[in-house]
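Hello,

Our lab assistant flagged a job as stuck in the queue for most of the afternoon. It eventually completed. Since we weren't sure the result was trustworthy after the delay, we are filing this so someone can double-check. Below is the sequence as submitted and the structure that was eventually returned. Let us know if re-running is recommended.
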Amino acid sequence: MNAKTIDRRHACLLVVDLQERLFPTMIDQERILQNSVCLVRACAILGIPIFVTEQYPRGLGATLPQLAEEIPDFAPLEKLTFSACGHPDLMDNVQAREIHDVILCGIEAHVCVTQTCLGLINQGHNAYVVTDAVSSRTLENKNAGLERMRNAGAGIVSTEMALFELMERAGTDEFKRILPLIK
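-- returned structure --
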């Protein structure tokens, strides 16, 4: 069980497959997009690396434009494997930056997010799944994915939980810039 807080010095945000043609079939779309954008904006303020994957973009489309425009130096990693851990550039970056804590948002919770989460845990990383920033086509599939990830040792967090752990304290300039994002 993962009982530690997210260490921002060794953390990244991984946005999994939030793509134009797949997203309209998800449950709770507005909330998922809003929280994913919030995570991206806050991580940009905190200087936390942000990685984005796209599953077979020729078929599923590009990353949602509302999200892509928020990501500094946007450069999505195209993949065919369901797990993002199958992308060598991603894992090389994670290793080179000494990232131990990976915050996950995206779709689908029970497929690509779960397989990525399990892959990260199997490689010795701490995975934190943002429950209000992941989705599937059905609530049953989303819940099954969250349960499987929790049972594997992932931290299941909300957007606010993740952000407050990353900020660590109130009163800083970063805190003052991020607080309006979550109010």
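-- support follow-up --
The delay was a queue issue, not a problem with the job. The result is valid. The chain has a mean pLDDT of 94. Helices lie at 29-46, 57-60, 65-68, 88-96, 109-122, 139-151, 159-167, 173-182.
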